[in-house]
Every structure is written in C-alpha cells, then in structure tokens.
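Aim 2, interim progress: modelling of the glutamic acid-bound target.
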Amino acid sequence: MITGRYAPSPSGRMHLGNLLCCLLAWLSAKSRGGQVLLRIEDLDTQRCPRVYADAIMEDLAWLGLAADGPEPPVYQSERSEIYQQYYDILARRGLVYPCFCSRSQLHAASAPHRSDGQVIYAGTCRNLTPDQIAEKSRTRAPAWRVQVPDETIAFTDGHMGPYAENLARDCGDFYLRRADGVFAYQLAVVVDDALMGVNEVVRGADLLSSTPRQLWLYRELGLTAPRFYHLPLLLAADGRRLSKRDGDQSLENLRAKYAPEEIIGKLAFACGLQDAPRPATPAALAESFTWAKVPQHDILLPENLF
Ligand code: GLU
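Predicted structure of the complex, ligand included:
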C-alpha cells in the first residue's frame, strides 16, 4: 500500500503552493488506494508555533484533504531523542565534526555555490585537531556537519525523471545539527519518513537537490528510502515565488472568498488536472489523476484565477 505524507513547516498559514503540494500528495496516494500521514515539521519551534499547525490541520479538513493519521500527528519538535540515536550512528563512525565557521565566512565571495544557490561547504573545519577544537569551543558553540564521500548519487524521480549529484563536488559536507542543538531538516526528514513507514514522498521541486544527500543518509543509516515525486513550483502571474507573505494567497483570505471545491478546482486547473477552473472535490479528481497531466516546468498562476 502507498503511504504518502504531508510534512508542512507551520511558520504561517498555508499558501497556494503549500496547498498544491498537499493536493498532489493526496491525489498521488489516494488514486492508487493509498493513505496520507501528517507530520508537522516544527524543528524550529520559535518560527513554528502550534497555532499554525492547528490552522493547517483545520484548513486541510475543510478542503477535504484531511490526513489519515496518526492522531495526534507526528511533531518533529518532540523527537530529539530519536534524531539523536541516528545522529550517533554517524558520529560513532567518525563522520560528524564540529564546524565553527561564521555565516560571513561561509558566504565569502569566493565560496562555490550549488545550482540552487546554496553555498558548497569548503571543508574548512573538517580536519581540525582536538586542540584546535578545544580552543575554538571557548568562544563559539559549533554546528555539526557530516562528511560526505566523493560519490555520485543518482535516482529517478517519479515526476521529474533522472537526477544525480556528486555529494563532495555538488553538495559538500552538510549540517546535521545547528549550534543551538536543533537537528537539521536533512536528518529529521529521513529518520521520520522511514520510521513512519512512508514509501512515497511528494514535495516541491525546490527539494529535488536535497534528495541525493537524503538518499545517502538512508543508506548510511540502514533505512529504506521512499519513492520521490517532485512537483513544479507554483509562481505568481509575474513569475515571483509565492510565499507566506503573499497574504492574498493565504488560506485565511481564500477561505473568506471561496468554497473548498472552488479553491481545489482552480488549483487543479492551474496544474493541468482539469481543462477549466470549475469546482471539484479531491475525491472526484482522484478518479482521473495521473502524474502525466502535471507539467514538469514551473506553473504560473493565471492572472485573476484567484
Ligand atoms: N517541511 C518542508 C516544507 O514545508 C517539506 C519537507 C519535505 O517534504 O521533505 O517545505
């Protein structure tokens, strides 16, 4: 059976991009008799208060997209001990090291950049001696990175097709834990999807480039990787990324203007699932859903659709 998931970061109300991701995760699983679980990605508790998690659940239920469980959902903020166990597996193998680099050092003009704009870590702190570590620890709490091999990780995305990255060259040693002790998304997402039994991950194309390092973590931690489907980004009519700051696209405002089937139907039209923006329920869309209808390129929200 297909087990998909929603994994929202509740740093605000959902916007249309978040909703498209939930809709496609739901359709992809349900159209093939599967289920969808809910995990709240609130590792950063300062940015992710419970009120937003509650609002997301309420919005999903109102839209006809309620998750199938668990009840209560998985909250990442409550799972540090679990992440620690998996972190320790890598640490015991000598793959984890403290990094004292400041933000400005990391973003120095000469720093190589990834295709997604992130900095590729130069490995500055990789070979510090115990004395150097002790010395640096006096003035700064380190973050913790995992040492990646010079290896190409390739996979075939269910929607976007083949994708590959050489971890050392294209990604670099990445964070497992922040200086304040919060575990990194890359580790938490792998551990959680594996332990929740998720075998299908549907998420935005902005995370395509995180997938090789996550696949490597699955392998190193002895966990089974899911199948991945990355969906195109939904952009405003003028090509801008939608964000939670786009108040007019937030569920709060949309709910004041439209019925749930109107929102779902318009969104289904925007992403190729219907030939007109007529009202639709998720259940009706599931009957004719295939990934082949969804474009691979970014989707521009037609002007005046919402
Ligand atoms: N929490 C992430 C987000 O809301 C999604 C992570 C994932 O799907 O792997 O963007």
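DSSP finds eleven helices and twelve strands in the chain. The chain has two domains: 3-79+187-300, 81-153+163-184.
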